């Protein structure tokens, strides 16, 4: 993977040199990262962390592993859980359709604040099926002291978010899909609370996921739209309930391909 990313960066650097001569304005995500790299080189060393090729490769990997793959994986898990829990499916659909109203024809961002149960469904999906069960590793840059322990520089720390979210000492019915648990005032409503670390699908603190404010509304809007416009069921003649076995990859996803029948709904 490292060699592939090095080649991608080298190809972009070469194309950028030709683009400046030919007036080609084609740009993509790698070009944005290279802009930062070149601006830093032009400004000279400032004493901060260098944004070099290694940093660019990390950002590209983060975009694929922690942004794209995780979002659609969470959507699949949410639909699978709702299909296996018809009562919760009806409840969230009723909420969405009531919020959009008789005169509405689609879900918009303005509706999301009214969809409290939908938010509970997504949180419970992330609790049970964190796309990255082991959060992205962090590494200390210098020797430090933490709670009386000496932590040497370059110590790698990996947080098991899956185990935290299924800890029976913290969660009642820890292995069951119960969106209502997030309706309680005693449970965190913040994905990255600095005070409550029972639920950390996006990490937490200064090193938490910087894309959470974009990822969560995107998932809410996409899931709400699917549940508003269609009624969903399993194909006829198949199993009456989905198997929820997991498969590892860039993220932890549903092992079996999710096949559902969508029936258009109209007010």
UniProtKB/TrEMBL annotation:
It comes from the Eukaryota. Its cofactor is heme. Its main location: membrane. InterPro entries: Cyt_P450, Cyt_P450_CS, Cyt_P450_E_grp-I, Cyt_P450_sf, Cytochrome_P450_71. Heme binds at residue 209. Belongs to the cytochrome P450 family. This is Cytochrome P450 71A1-like. It comes from Panicum miliaceum.
């Amino acid at each position: 993977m490292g060699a592939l990313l090095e080649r991608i960066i080298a190809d972009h650097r070469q194309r950028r040199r030709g683009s400046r001569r030919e007036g080609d304005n084609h740009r993509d995500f790698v070009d944005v990262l290279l802009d930062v790299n070149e601006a830093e080189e032009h400004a000279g060393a400032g004493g901060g962390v260098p944004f070099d090729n290694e940093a660019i490769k990390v950002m590209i990997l983060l975009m694929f592993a922690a942004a794209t793959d995780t979002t659609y994986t969470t959507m699949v898990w949410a639909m699978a859980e709702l299909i296996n829990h018809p009562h919760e499916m009806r409840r969230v659909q009723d909420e969405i359709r009531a919020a959009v109203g008789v005169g509405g024809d689609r879900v918009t961002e303005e509706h999301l604040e009214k969809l409290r149960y939908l938010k509970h469904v997504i949180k419970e999906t992330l609790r049970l099926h964190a796309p990255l069960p082991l959060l992205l590793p962090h590494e200390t840059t210098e020797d430090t002291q933490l709670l009386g322990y000496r932590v040497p520089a370059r110590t790698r720390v990996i947080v098991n978010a899956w185990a935290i979210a299924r800890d029976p000492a913290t969660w009642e019915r820890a292995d069951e899909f119960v969106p209502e648990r997030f309706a309680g005032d005693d449970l965190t409503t913040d994905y990255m609370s600095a005070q409550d670390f029972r639920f950390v699908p996006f990490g937490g603190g200064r090193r938490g996921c910087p894309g959470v404010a974009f990822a969560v509304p995107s998932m809410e809007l996409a899931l709400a739209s699917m549940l508003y416009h269609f009624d969903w069921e399993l194909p006829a003649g198949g199993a009456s309930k989905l198997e929820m076995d997991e498969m590892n990859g860039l993220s932890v996803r549903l092992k079996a391909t999710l096949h559902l029948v969508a029936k258009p709904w109209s007010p």
